[in-house]
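*** Fold description ***
***
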Amino acid sequence: MDTTKITPELARIVQSFQKCLELRDKYITKSLQRLGDNPRDHDGVFHGVNEGLADVSGVKPDVDQSLAASLNSPHDPWVIYPKPPPPHWHFAAKETVIHADGRVTPVDQFDFSQCQIPGNHEWEFEIDDKGVYQVYTAVDGNSAPFPPEEFDLILFSAEAKKPLFDIPTIREYFVDLDYVLGVISDGPTKSMAYRRLKYLASKFEMYSLLNEFQELADMKVRGDN
């Protein structure tokens, strides 16, 4: 697009969209919702994504995939027991847990000893002076007490504790929320977003018109396999 033809009004709208995207990335990053932030993502095959190579939806499309796959996982592989049922297109009677006559095959019997039950955690939580729940870990070799007592509050003052996670303040959150609500309520911005959605919908309809039968054939092949 020729930037010389962008009007000040259009530039303002695009900048507001960009700020909203940055706020989305900010809060998804702080709330650990990116790919690899959840320990359950680490299944022994996936080892996480190096910082700077990922965005909120996964690995950036323009990065070297070998660099993205070279990370050592900080978590133990997530063990799923019992294993999930097979896909319905691979489902067979021998893989059911309970048969039609009520029998349970020995291979499908549930073994409680195989379950991994986590123990107590060293992290503690409490409300800080801003009214936000914070998670704390060890302070000078000692864990923050919970529930706190009067004597403990003196020892573990707000200056001594360091929150384990970076949580925005209430003021910061409401300032960002007010900006997003302002963009949502702006008339020209809503009109541009609506026209953009109509454009994308028409592109998808054209794609479906040209590729519908081929996709149905591919789905049938995958189902037969």
